[in-house]
Structure formats: C-alpha cells, structure tokens
Amino acid sequence: MSTNQEKTTRLRSRWAALAVLSTTMLMAILDGSIVTVAAPAIQQDLGFSPAGLSWIMNAYLIPLGGLLLLAGRLGDLVGRRTMFLAGNALFTAASVLAGAAGTAGMLIAARFLQGVGGALATAVVLGILVTLFTDARERAKAIGIFSFTGAAGASIGQVLGGVLTDVLGWHWIFFINLPIGLATILFALPALPRDRGIGLSAGADLAGALLVTSGLMLGIYTVVKVEQHGWASAHTLGLGAVSLVLLAGFAARQATAATPLMPLRILRSRNVAGAYAVQLLTLSAMFSFQVIVALYMQRVLGYSALDTGLAMLPAAVSIGAVSLFVSARLSNRFGERLVLIAGLVLLSGAMLLLTTVPVHADYVTDLLPVFVLIAGGGLVLPSLTALGMSSARPDDAGLASGLFNTVQQVGMALGVAVLTTLAASRVEGLRAGGDGEAAALTGGYHLAFSVSAGLLVAALAVSLLVLRNPRPPAGTAEAPAESVPTTA
Q: What UniProt keywords apply to this chain's record, in alphabetical order (predicted)?
C-alpha cells in the first residue's frame, strides 16, 4: 500500500470513529430532552404523581452528572475504548428496559441505569477525539461536527419525542435506542483505536473516587429537588452543605494523594478554568430555551407535542448548519475566543427577544427570529470544547473529557433548578394579583428568559476578561500562520 493510500485509510478511520463518538453523544443528549414532550403521556399511562414525574428526568441526570468525572479517569486508566463500549452496552440494555416498563418504579430504575451507561460512554468521547485528531485544522473541523450533537441534540430530541409519542407511543422514545446502540457498538469495534490505558496504579484513588462521586451525585440531587423544597429549606441547605464538604474533601485529597484521581494541574490553565466557567453559565441559561420555550408553546399557545417538536425544528437546523459548516472555518481564521464571543452575543439576543413574546404569539414574527439567532449555539459549543480540552495530555484526556462533560451536566441541573423555581414563583404572584392563567405563565417565563439573558451576559464578560486563544498543544500540526491569529 502506498503512502497516500495509507494516509487516506487512516483519515477515513478517524472520521468513522468521529461518527461513532458523535452518535453516542447524540443518544445521551436526546435521552435527556426527548422525555420532556412525552412526559404527559407517560404520566397518564404509568400513573406518575406530579412530583414523581420529575424523576423521569432526575433519575437519568443524577448518575450521568455524578459519574462522568470518575468514568473519564477510569477510561485513562483501563482504556477509553473499553469504557466506551461498556457504557454503550449498558445504555442500550437499559433503554430496552425503559421502553418495556409497566410501572413507574421500573421506569425510574431503567432511567438510572441509562444514566450510568451514558456516563461511562460519554465521559471518554472527547478524550478519544482529541487523541485521534492532532492536526489543528482537522481537530477544529472534528470538534465542529461533534459539537453539533451537543448544540442541536436537545432540539432534535424534542422534535423526535413529539413525533414518536404521537405516532407510535412513548415507549418508542426508548426502544429507538436499541438499533442505534447496537449499530454504534458494531461500528465502534473496528473504528476506535485500541488503547491499554496507563494502569490502575497510576490513579487508583479509591477514597477520592468515593468523595467525588458521592459529592457530585448528592449535589445534583439537591439542585434538582430545589423546586420542591425551596432554596432556603433545611433539605436544600443541609444536603448542599454536605455535598460541598465532600467535594472540598476530594480537592484536598487530590492535592496530597500519591496517585490522584484528578491531578489538579488540569485546572491551572487560564483557558480551561475560564471555559468551564463560561460553559456553566451558558448551559444554565440555555435550559430556558430547551425546556421553557417548549412549555410556553404547549401551555400558553396550546401546541401539541408534535407541533412543538416541529416548531423547534428550525433551531436544530440553524445550530447544525453553523456547527457543521461555519464554526471550524471561523475558528481557524479568528481563533476560538472571538468565535465564542460572537456566539454568546447571538444567544443573548435570542434570550432578549424571548422576554418580549406575548400571550398570543405569532410563530413567524415572534418565535422564528429566536430560532434563527439560536444558531449562536453552533459557535459557542465547538469553541468551548476546543478551549476546555486545549491543555489535555494523552494520559489524562479521558479525565479532561469527563470533567468537561461534568460541568455541562451541572450547568443543566442548575438551570433546571434556578429557572423553573423563579418562573413558578412569578406565576404564583401574578395569579394572586388577578392575572389569567396564560398571562401568568407568560410572565413567569419572561422572568426565566430575563435571568437567562443575564447569565449569558456574565458568560460574555468572562470570555472577554479571562480567555485567550490557545496555543496548539506540543506535537500538533499548526494551521498556516495567516489563518490562525497568534494574539488574542
């Protein structure tokens, strides 16, 4: 085989691996949002109480967010390919159990197992990606394609959830993962590179693993229950304090352990720490688009689940188009920092427009412009991914991947707790003041959109003050000098 043929074969193998990684990430994100439009049908069929219904989402989010950091590090130690395949197998099997659930308890248990499998699989995907794509231009393109699954996945989930629920029934929002999961595993076997890992002795910190996993899971549980108990309740303050103590104990342990689970050097990079802060703020804000917009269309405008999913399709298309065809080119020319700033400006504009939507909104004039501006997400997530993984080394790429995804899940959980609590409180106040149901709901959603806009402005400030365009990691190929700025 000639040198050119070998190069072409390696290139095809890398892009095949990227397709596998992106599909897994898409499945995990879809299962976080696909249930939002199917929840009423599930409640009616399985007899969930209003309070119990939230556990369809919470049972998935708690293990997913709590195990990502540990799973990412274990991928470095025992092999990222092994962790990826095991997670996919568990996620697929749990999806079948969820689709076949005949009771509320069985569905919640299956959703918990889905969360565990999702954590094992998705924790290592970015670690695999950055070790496969070392050329600066190829990596930017690969991250743009991969980030499409994160940026547009929630919107696609709402579209797909509406279609499947109305046409086939809610069971199929889970059953659809079976053929996709099996195909992913079969394609992953030849596509993903074999890696042996650096060995458990390099980071088998059992005490640290216990501290961080229990701290994260307890913290996420506390946050998602805020809507039920309130921020100032003994439940929230007590469990929140315990979670912080556990996480502080983990940080102290990592500073002194001979083989730390998470070497603290990973947080010394200005860009990495800043990217995590921006990611936390941005994803907390974007919950109001992913979920509250759907609630507004169904509860105020009277859209069906299918209508809501189709109405949000332009958002998925615009995000996908920007992620796939625009973000990499702009990043190579102007650097990730400036692209991130441009995306945050677009997202802030979308949130500000949502603060003005009326009770009797017109889709074309009031909502469609929002779904066009939301394309800024296609600029934000690829840039954050590149910045957040910019200092990852081959021996801790899985850890960096797990940490990046952990911040993502914590941000989503905080968005759920903060924005829904504020919106519900505002709705109750407006009802007490004599407003009708639709007007009160709209007023509550306006408050959530206003807070989201504020969070995005804060993310923009961090981007301007903290972030700098990263230098290519040692050993990577740089893009031509005229295409990549050398200064921020």
A: Cell membrane, Membrane, Transmembrane, Transmembrane helix, Transport
Q: How far is CA 331 from the centre of its chain?
A: 21
pLDDT of res. 368: 92
Under 8 Å between Cβ of 99 and 180 = no
Take residue 442 and report the two structure tokens written for it.
């709209």
d(CA 201, CA 364): 59
Closest to 108 in 3D by CA, of 45, 24, 48, 177: 48
How much of the chain exceeds pLDDT 70, in percent?
Answer: 86
Write down the pTM of the prediction.
0.76
Is 264 exposed, middle or buried (CB count within 10 Å of its CB: 0-12, 13-18, 19+)? Answer: exposed
Enumerate residues 6+ apart whose C-beta is below 8 A from 122: 24, 25, 28, 64, 68, 87, 405
Q: Residue written as tokens 């997530």? A: 381
186, pLDDT greater than 90: yes
pLDDT band at 1 (very low <50, low <70, confident <90, very high): very low
Domains, the chain, ranges and CATH? 3-204+259-465 (1.20.1250.20), 205-258 (no CATH)
